[in-house]
Protein: Bifunctional uridylyltransferase/uridylyl-removing enzyme
Organism: Frischella japonica
Amino acid sequence: MKTEIYSTLNLPFSPLDIDNEQLSINNLKSLLDKFYQWSVTEFEAKTDIDTLIYMRSKFIDQLLIRLWQYFQLPEQISSLFQINRISLIAVGGYGRGELHPLSDVDILILSDKPLTKSIEDKIGQLVRLLWDLHLDVGHSVRTLKVCLQEAKNDITIMTNLLEARLIVGNNKLFNELLHQILNNTIWPSREFYQAKINEQLQRHRQYHSTSYNLEPDIKNSPGGLRDIQIIQWIALRHFGSNFLQEQNHFNYLTPEEIEEINNCQRFLWRIRFALHIVINRYDNRLLFDRQLSIARLLGYQGEGNQPVEKMMRDYYRVVHNITELNQMLLQLFEESILTLKPENRPYDIDQYFQIRDKLIDVKDNNLFIDNPVMILKLFHTMLLNRQIIGIYSNTIRQLRSARRKMNGLLCEYPQARQQFMQIIKHPDVIKKALLPMHRYGILAIYIPGWKRIVGMMQFDLFHQYTVDEHTIRLLLELADFTTPDGQKKHPNSSQVYAKLAKPELLVITALFHDIAKGRSGDHSELGADLVEQFCQLHNVNEKDSKLIVWLVRYHLLMSITAQSRDLQDPAVIREFAQQVKNKTYLQYLLCLTVADVCATNETLWNSWKQSLMRELYCQTDRLFNLGIHQIPEHRSIAREHKQSALTLLKLDGYDETTIKVFWQNYQFDYFWRYTTEQIVWHVKHLLYHNLTEPLVVINEKPFHGGTEVFIYSPDRPYLFATVSNELNKRNLNIHDALITTNKKEYALDTFIVLDPNGQLISHDRHEEIKTSLEKALRQTDYKRAKIKRPLSKLRHFTVPTEINFLSSLNDRKTYVELITKDRPGLLAYLGEIFSNLDLSLRSAKIVTIGEHIEDLFVLTNKNNQALNEQSCQLLRQAILDVIDEMDNES
């Protein structure tokens, strides 16, 4: 804590001024409210954040001192049998004198002997009063002996005590505590250092080891306040003082670096202070629904999300700097605390670099300034020496200095381009070169346009990371295709990846696939132009350049087709194959697409998406093998499925004549829409079923990564709405729907569903779902249930509604694409619309991407024909009307 600031603060009003007659809960609450309002006013007036943080701490100090006096708790209490020394001590963040509006007030009441009953009662009254004042108090009452034992057993308690500060009470007792805590018998410096390093690593893993989450935790995310505190704690334990205040003594950071880390801390303090003003409960997360209010409170200006974009860019720059400084200092502390063993002394690699304890270090501190190309040489050297696991603190400092002094880009140097292409072609390029190049800001000074995407926000619930971090994670997903875990997770993609002749082309593609985000225009088209220029600059041959440019331009093609188009329709596969052109392009596109989806959000990839990608890939690959014009017609597919199903059923003992009679009521589109296995499954459940009664069957085995629900029921208005409504009530998400009707107007419908986490429906729920659906199907009157689900996040996003009528090779059907904000129960509303307009739903693809949906419906009119222009306009207006109705209801 900066004692020189703290000691000179003058509070505008003080709890010490309240006499006993006026000391009541209401008066104290009023004083706390008054101080809070004063703090907000001062914050908005841009008062120094250090002053506000320490002022609140001093205000709470004086409140506690006043209550200590009120309850007559002096520093030493005499009784007939003993003398109790007692102290009220601030610990943790409060011990540092750092209190934000909603911060915990952590206190320790310390005594040298067990307290008497009367003293315990008074302390209990004091603590209860603090709770009544709605202060978040964390308190402990311990003797010195117990306190030291607890500190020995728990490093968290030890850490809190390192920052202890006496508020009121016995000073000698407090000093005894400090003396014992700093004694090397309790958490020796080496053990404390290692424990804190492990603690930081574990905490970072909770945030996916990145500072670039779109909803970061200001305190705990990598590069957050906790990373500064870790350094302070280690310095306190080892040196007994705070290095940020006594840098001349430690000489681990330059004065400029000390000022930089203090400025970074002040920036995060201001964001945290603003966050605590905006919310009404303790939290340190910069959630989407808070970011705009915080940005405006901090003075960021602009239209729409511009204030957030500006604030978050500053935030990511600050946490990046904290991460670099944290790593530098922890390395230096490690050398001081653990000391290097003789076998770990530096040894030369070449004339430029040496190795220090498996870390690469420059031999000349002016190397990068004198010759910037050597920055690329550094990372190439790391690739060529497997024993190197990272970069030494001194070299990190030189990289930071050279990076900030760069004029122009490194790729302007011909020798740098040669080094870069050598790096790109190395099999370990992603984890051993590109990842550290990103971490230390080198990609931003090499790749044209990369600097623009560093810290770029993506305002949706689909993406989890900034644009640059998403790109790095895509690269890491590609690297994982070569690992046992990656091969297990992505069996198809990893096999394809292993066959790629030049995986480095995929690396370049990945670097540029989103590089044009944030620019006006289609980022895929703009990115393709940028990567084409990059390929020309780096002398990539025409064939390879053509592939890279195509991949960047069409990097979303496979994902959109797999998730939003009918993969059972041969015309869809043919059209996709024509766009992809050949098997080589297909292989590269599959690997890029899978890695892209996985890198977008930790929870996005599931067995359903995996099955869609695999099916699209396999069908397209098969088509390339047959010849792109040899795709079978619908009727030939139907005949093949029908004959194969019959063969399998006969093997199981079913009578051929009985089956053929049973199938007389089925139309050919049933047989080409359903697979052989599905047809067999249906027959086994329906052949001896009372066909006048509805039937619901749930497949015990996964189907294309989802849970398959088959429904047989008399076709009637609102059937799709009824099923959608019932599944929605059960908190199940429909991802695919196949709607067919036999000649007797009985529906044979299939729904592929998953739970909200993208998982299969557990078997113990099957019977409950089956029963509820059959009950709903027996009801003659349709009534939509009102379903209320949390919309707290959704309401902060605006997704313009798009209704597109897509062209199709099949003129008997109309393809309707709906893009809009996700709304619970929307499918049931849409089912009502289809029924009200006398439209038949043939199939549906339901895709939820974060806060918005991209659904595809295949419709016909009552005459089994495509919709005319008038029907399309009626449908469009009905959908817009119902979306307005849902928004008004919410």
Notes: The chain has a mean pLDDT of 89. Residues 8 and 193 are 34 Å apart (CA to CA). Residues 189-339 form a domain with the Four Helix Bundle (Hemerythrin (Met), subunit A) fold (CATH 1.20.120.330).
